[in-house]
Amino acid sequence: MLIPRQKVPALKLDTLDHGKFDLAEDGAERGTVICFYRGLHCPICANYLSELAKRTSEFAERGVKTIAVSSDTEERTRAMQAKVGSDTLRFGHGLTLANAKEWGLYISAGIGKTSIGIEEPALFSEPGLFMVRPDGTLYYGSVQTMPFVRPHFSELVAALDIVIERNYPARGEYTGAV
After folding, report:
1. 64-69 and 31-36: which strand pairing?
2. What is the rounded CA–CA span in Å between residue 168 and residue 166?
3. Mean pLDDT across the stretch 79-91?
4. Are strands 138-143 and 64-69 parallel, antiparallel or unpaired?
5. Which of 23, 45, 108, 134 falls between 20 and 30 A from 63, CA-CA?
6. Of 4-8, 111-115, 125-129, 132-136, where does mean pLDDT reach its minimum?
7. What are the φ/ψ torsions at residue 122 (nearest 5 degrees)?
8. CA count, 13 A, side-chain hemisphere, 174
9. What pLDDT, on the 0 to 100 scale, is given for residue 60?
């Protein structure tokens, strides 16, 4: 389990149009929002990433970079980027399932074609949304076992205004006895 205010696992990937991504060297003023998505086969992911793409400039205004990440191949990731219709949202591809597990993501086995007629990979990770501070520590995290009911990017953007104004600390860091 990832713990707020502690270092997150390494994340190094190829991106479609932005070169190599290395979270440790991302250089965001206030942090990086990482949206792990299921892959091209998921119609809910396409809608979710479209919303992230629309909000990417709002995150940037607050000193936060964004990236969408999956275990899909470059070809499938390019197809998702086309569906989303964004050239500003970074898309990382080739996430290993071992790395996904380090991030606490759930892994699912493919069950055939989805409602949009695209074959699920044999194994893939379920969604997760994280914000990582520039020092590599976890600020915010949410993971899911299912493709639906995800955090709203509009709420995260609005929360960032409060976080910035009040220097609000990451929460959920207590690991002692209860």
Report:
1. parallel
2. 5
3. 96
4. unpaired
5. 45
6. 111-115
7. -60, -45
8. 4
9. 98
